[in-house]
Amino acid sequence: MSKFTGLTDTYTLHNGVEIPCIGLGTWQVPDGDLAYNAVRDALSIGYRHVDTAAVYGNEESVGRAVRDSGIPRDQIFVTSKLWNTVRGYNETKEAFEETLRKLGLDYLDLYLIHWPNPAGFRDRWKEANAETWRAMEDLYKEGRIRAIGISNFLEHHIEALLETAEIIPMVNQIRLCPGDTKADLVAYCRDKGMVIEAYSPFGTGKAFEVPEFKQIAAKYNKTVAQLLVRWSLQMGFLPLPKSTNAARMKENADVFDFELDEDDVAHLAGMTGACGESWDPDTVDW
After folding, report:
1. Is residue 19 included in any domain, yes or no?
2. Among 11, 36, 47, 56, which one carries the catalytic annotation?
3. Are 145 and 111 in contact (CB under 8 A)?
4. Does residue 279 fall inside a structural domain?
5. DSSP per-residue codes, 163-201
């Protein structure tokens, strides 16, 4: 069986910080009651890891739910991300302060550069990322952020960042689901000591339309969602399933009482295109 036995079990980042093995994703969850109630429900179910971003527009509701939960702050792992319109040393620090203000928190557990090559910085993305990363390193050294990392970065983006970085990113958060496993990138990041977070582990809903996933899930008497969260854990990823439904959140977390056969893990990994494909970070128009 997996080493994980529940939602509060953790991966350990290369700086020693522990990060809960499953997080609640909040992409496409609008600010207001929906985001607030989703986070409150998740925390009441037992989640201790919440992932948001400046561009999601829901930091205020996410932060209010964390504060209202009654759970000690040091028991909840909160991630946010710097959006593509912001690069540079001072600009990054200002954006971070705005994120903290919206969340209503004193510190972040993890702060990520959301994309490596924004449309507005395409002619100078390397220099822009270097200055942004320097600001994040300083915020980390000041104790304002417990861990810093990246999202959607490919090998050449990371190589460029490491030319000037003092601190190697602790995390790379990328789209990972059956058939979209980015094996070379994952191996590269692991070699650098990064934990791999898997966003859109259900392929933004596409997974629920795949008949073979339903067949494999039935073999284990589990749902497709449970199958894919379990698969993600057995691949060594940290999945971030999104839901605003408390029953579904509970279902997504009920993955610690079974184990997929190695053949099924490999078969799911090889189902190319089953959950769609990732965007190319060098050509996205945002």
Report:
1. yes
2. 56
3. yes
4. no
5. TT-SS--SEEEEE-BTTB--HHHHHHHHHTT-EEEEE-T
| Cβ atoms 207, 224 nearer than 8 A | yes
Q: Nearest to residue 59, comparing CAs of 41, 36, 43?
A: 36
Report the alpha-carbon distance of residue 166 to residue 170 in Å, rounded. 12
pLDDT under 50 in the chain at which residues? 1
- Structural domains counted in the chain: 1
In-domain check, residue 283: no
Query: What distance in Å separates the CA atoms of residue 59 and residue 101, rounded to the nearest whole number?
Result: 9
**Residue 198 near residue 174, CB atoms below 8 Å:** yes
Residues 102-139 pLDDT 10s: 999 999 999 999 999 999 999 999 999 999 999 999 99
What the block records as the tokens of 204 is 């933004």
Q: How far apart are CA 242 and CA 248, in angstroms?
A: 9
Q: Residue 278 domain-assigned?
A: no
Q: Longest Cα pair distance anywhere in the chain, in angstroms? A: 54
Count of CA atoms in the C-beta half-sphere (13 A) of 193: 11
Is 56 a residue of the active site? yes
Residue 65's domain spans which residues?
Answer: 10-269
